[in-house]
Amino acid sequence: MNYSPLTITAQVAHTVRDFQQLRTGHTPKSVTVVLSEGVMVVTLHEALTPAEILLCQTDIGLTRLRDFHRDLIRGSLGPLGTEIERIAGVALQEVVADIEPATGDIVHIFTTGALLQVFKLTGGLSGETWVGSESDSA
After folding, report:
1. Domains along the chain?
2. Could you give phi then psi for residue 44, rounded to 5 degrees?
3. Rounded-to-integer distance, Cα 129 and Cα 124, Å
4. What are the residue boundaries of the Na+-translocating membrane potential-generating system MpsC domain, all occurrences included (predicted)?
5. If we measure between CA atoms, which residue out of 78, 12, 79, 71 comes closest to residue 41?
6. Does the pLDDT of residue 38 top 80, yes or no?
7. Which of 57, 61, 89, 136 sits most deeply, having the most CB atoms within 10 A of its CB?
8. Residues 6 or more apart from 96 whose CB is under 8 A from it?
9. How is 67-99 classified by DSSP, letter by letter?
10. Spatial contact of 46 and 26, defined as CB atoms under 8 Å apart
11. Above 80 in pLDDT, residue 133?
């Protein structure tokens, strides 16, 4: 049997999933991690509890829930950030968090100081659609 160690993204995904479960008592359905030059985007799929999803149905509830999750990740950046830094081998400078009430997803964006712009898509793109090359950029 061949054993291969977990990739950095898999290690981060496990760490963030365990952190979310420990802090909120709710385990996300899945966690994806994307690394790209100074930015790590972690998406916790279906991470909101049923009560949080109900809270999102009002503007004030959505605002309070976003603030809660932003404060939760910022306040926990010490222990969680230290573990992510250990896994990835780079220092984290900033974390941004947001929720997507329609899907129950929570997104954490960790940066090492890179300028960051985030665009939320209303639908998914297939792998065939999301293909391009360096020369395709504007």
Report:
1. 8-136 (3.30.980)
2. -100, 105
3. 10
4. 8-111
5. 12
6. no
7. 61
8. 70, 108, 109, 111, 116, 118
9. HHHHHHHHHTHHHHHHHHHHHHSS---EEEEEE
10. no
11. no
